[in-house]
Specification:
Layout lengths: L4 E4 L3 H14 L2 E7 L6 H5 L2 E6 L10 H11 L3 E3 L9 H9 L3 E2 L4 H8 L1 H10 L7 E2 L6 H11 L3 E5 L9 E3 L5 H16 L4 E5 L4 E10 L5 E13 L2 E7 L6 H17 L4 E10 L4 E8 L6 H8 L3 H9 L16 E8 L1 E2 L5 E2 L2 E2 L2 E3 L6 E5 L6 E2 L6 E9 L2 H13 L2 E3 L5 H8 L12 H5 L9 H22 L12 E3 L8 E8 L2 E8 L4 E7 L6 E9 L8 E6 L2 E10 L2 E6 L2 E8 L1 H5 L2 H8 L2 E3 L4 E6 L6 E2 L4 E7 L2 E6 L4 E6 L6 E2 L4 E7 L2
Parallel strand pairs: 1-2, 1-4, 2-3, 4-5
Antiparallel strand pairs: 6-9, 7-8, 7-9, 10-11, 10-13, 11-12, 12-15, 13-14, 15-22, 16-17, 18-21, 19-23, 20-22, 24-25, 25-26, 25-32, 26-27, 27-28, 28-29, 29-30, 30-31, 31-32, 33-40, 34-36, 34-39, 35-38, 36-37, 38-40
Helix pairs in contact: 3-4, 12-13
Bound molecules: adenosine-5'-diphosphate.
The site of adenosine-5'-diphosphate has 18 residues, from strand 10, strand 13 and strand 14.
């Protein structure tokens, strides 16, 4: 039977993705939408759209009966479930069977077999597919589980048998933590999946997530479409995915392909599925984790390297066609990397964002694919997950794919809600991204949590901005020698090479030295003397606003771009954005050479204004005992708030200004009698 009208039981990017293939195949697409999605992109893009219920997923996208009612109403002859929601629901398939509607996916039996991790693991063991050492038996009593834990050895991972999306997982490092962790895992599993059975696994300390795409028809043919690596994860959820896998012996990969096909054949599998493995980077052993009986979020990476349209094949095999491709035809052409763009604030513990997308412009470039579910004016509501788009880049090498991904992420304009674009670019621009990856990647790269740019990068921007300011001043100087206008020290270079400017800054008690090389807004900045690093080098590009058009500069550091307000006054450079306020003061050549830093450090018992401004708050009074570092004065200058600390511990001797007073650069505000 040929599918003529296909209902897509999903929303967002995956609904839009399926609609694209429907258009290509001449199939009418039917979207379903909840109250919250009345104006959503997927509902507009489809040929027809049906309202199915309330905003809460349980009242709409998770309501199998409401979806079936819609399919009957519009006379759809098939349902594509996408991923998530009802994609692995035996209830929806049963309803399809009762009503003579084709379900674009595997059978109830395959989904049921693979739906529980306990049973899936038992089937894998029966097929002699290696599984993670652990316990997946029927005895679920706490005592039985506890005795198994002792056998497995710590650390142990407790996993919900019905789990998905990393929910219901708990690491147990030692015996004393087990009872509590088991209780929590069972509770979470019951709440999320209505099934509190758990399995126990040896916790692999340096795991890689490797998966194999399979595709099967109803005539007994099961193919694998190579592998993907999804090791860059946060909270057990994938962030960056790629195809094919690098840094792994071909013999190991072939072994995984064979296991995946063997499992697919055993299940009489139909359609697209993914067999997931965990690879222990220390022992180089791979184990079966689970099988996802649906299309995966990361399927475009496989599409870009195999040239196949997975949704097209899902539809074709669902309507009974035989696969016309053979295993030998499937070869990886180049490399593809996908990044999941979420509406969230990575600098604030990845808090999901809600709001309206006020600005929206997708990048267009060779080798770049954007699968998105939003457009300008789309609402990000609190009812569904925060993924709004995927940027997928292809290149004939992994290096080119990652370069294109970087440009794609940087050129993707999404305004109105915060997104994780900068976080994603910082993940793929680290040197470690080109080495063996493990699921610890994010934790290792950002042990303190992710922040847009680190201190050294801000200092590099400030020094380059200062350099630009001085170059401009020199160009403008009409009298005397332009060199007089230069506060920093220029080293002459051989003819033609850009000069290097040297400048210095006092940072805490350290003297930091900068070597800034470049002109026309592009600089290479070398920083010496940072407390935690011997030397740090950054590429900085600066695009200044036209004169009279504000202070917002376009700044790019090491491949990541953003807008910053930059204000330069004498030797002070202030950088600001909605969540950032930093100011730096450069030293004159004399100050740096004459040991001024040392002098400042020793004699400092005063708070001085370091630029003209307004005292907004005085937090100390004469006679107060103060600690070193305690805020003494709050000042507003150059549009920023500056908390000015007491330089030493002691007793406040005098306070010269009050809140509301104007101060000039260098004015003495507070004097402290240092403690003996
Ligand atoms: P879910 O179905 O919730 O996605 P999975 O079993 O697929 O759960 O595992 C998700 C992720 O959890 C894996 O990609 C891996 O990062 C981590 N994980 C799973 N099992 C183990 C294990 N035994 N040791 C270490 N990490 C694991």
């Amino acid at each position: 039977m040929t599918i003529k009208r296909l209902l897509i039981a999903n929303r967002g990017e995956i609904a839009c993705r399926v609609i694209k293939t429907c258009k290509k195949l001449g199939i009418e697409s039917v979207a379903v939408f909840s109250d919250a999605d009345r104006y959503a992109l997927h509902a507009q893009k489809a040929d027809l759209a049906c309202h199915i219920g309330g905003a809460a997923a349980s009242e709409s996208y998770l309501n199998a009966q409401a979806i079936m009612d819609a399919a009957i109403k519009v006379k759809a002859d098939a349902i594509h479930p996408g991923y998530g929601f009802l994609s692995e629901s035996t209830e929806l398939i049963s309803l399809c069977q009762e009503n003579g509607v084709i379900f674009v996916g595997p059978s109830v039996a395959s989904i049921a077999d693979m739906g529980s991790k306990i049973e899936a693991k038992a089937i894998a063991q029966q097929l002699e597919i290696p599984t993670v050492p652990g316990y997946n038996g029927d005895d679920q009593s706490p005592d039985a589980l506890k005795s198994q834990v002792e056998k497995i050895g710590f650390p142990v991972l407790i996993k919900a048998s019905a789990g998905g999306g990393g929910k219901g997982m708990r690491i147990v490092e030692e015996a004393s933590q087990f009872d509590e962790a088991l209780k929590m895992a069972k509770q979470e599993a019951l709440n999320s999946f209505g099934d509190d059975r758990v399995l126990l696994e040896k916790y692999i300390v340096r795991p890689r997530h490797i998966e194999v795409q399979v595709l099967a028809d109803s005539h007994g043919k099961v193919l694998h479409l190579l592998d993907r690596e999804c090791s860059i994860q946060r909270n057990y959820q994938k962030v960056i995915e790629e195809a094919p896998v690098s840094h792994m012996a071909d013999s190991v990969r072939q072994g995984l392909f064979d296991c995946a096909v063997k499992l697919g054949q055993h299940l009489n599998y139909l359609g697209a599925g993914t067999v997931e493995f965990i690879f222990d980077a220390d022992t180089e052993e791979a184990y079966f984790l689970e099988m996802n009986t649906r299309l995966q979020v990361e399927h475009p990476t496989t599409e870009l390297v195999t040239g196949l349209d997975l949704v097209e094949w899902q539809i074709r095999v669902a309507q009974g066609e035989a696969l016309t491709i053979n295993q030998e035809d499937i070869k990886a052409n180049g490399h593809a990397i996908e990044a999941r763009v979420n509406a969230e604030d990575p600098a604030n513990d990845y808090l999901p964002e809600i709001g309206t997308i006020k600005l929206y412009r997708e990048p267009e470039a060779e080798g770049l694919r954007i699968d998105s579910g939003v457009t300008q004016g789309s609402e990000i509501t609190p009812f569904y997950d925060s993924m709004i788009a995927k940027v997928i880049a292809w290149g004939n090498t992994r290096g080119l794919a990652s370069q294109r991904l970087l440009h794609g992420l940087n050129d993707y304009s999404i305004g109105g809600v915060k997104t994780n674009q900068e976080f994603l670019t910082s993940l793929i621009t680290r040197p470690a991204f080109h080495q063996e990856l493990t699921t610890q990647y994010i934790g290792k790269q950002f042990p303190e949590g992710w922040q847009p740019w680190g201190e050294a990068m801000h200092m590099a921007i400030a020094s380059a901005a200062y350099c630009v300011d001085q170059q401009n001043a020199a160009n403008k100087a009409t009298t005397g020698s332009p060199w007089q206008a230069l506060g920093s020290w220029r080293l002459t270079q051989t003819c033609g090479a850009p000069a290097i400017s040297k400048m210095w800054m006092q940072h805490g008690k350290e003297l930091i030295e900068f070597e800034v090389q470049g002109t026309n807004g592009s600089f290479l900045v070398k920083i010496n003397g940072l407390p935690d690093e011997d030397e740090s080098t950054h590429n900085v590009s600066l695009t200044l606003p036209r004169s009279g058009q504000g202070d917002t500069w376009q700044v790019e550091v090491d491949g990541t771009r953003r807008s910053l307000d930059v204000v330069i006054h004498n030797k002070h450079v202030a950088l600001s954005s909605p969540r950032l306020n930093r100011s730096y003061t450069f030293l004159s050549l004399e100050e740096s050479q004459l040991g001024e830093v040392a002098a400042l450090k020793n004699s400092s018992n005063v708070i001085r204004a370091h630029m003209p401004g307004l005292v907004t708050d005085v937090l100390v009074a004469e006679g107060d005992k103060v600690e070193e570092g305690q805020t003494g004065i709050v000042m507003e200058a150059m549009k920023l708030i500056h908390n000015m600390p007491c330089p030493c511990a002691g007793t406040v001797k005098s306070v010269m200004f009050a809140a509301g007073d104007k101060v000039e650069d260098g004015d003495l505000i507070v004097e402290i009698e240092p403690e003996e």
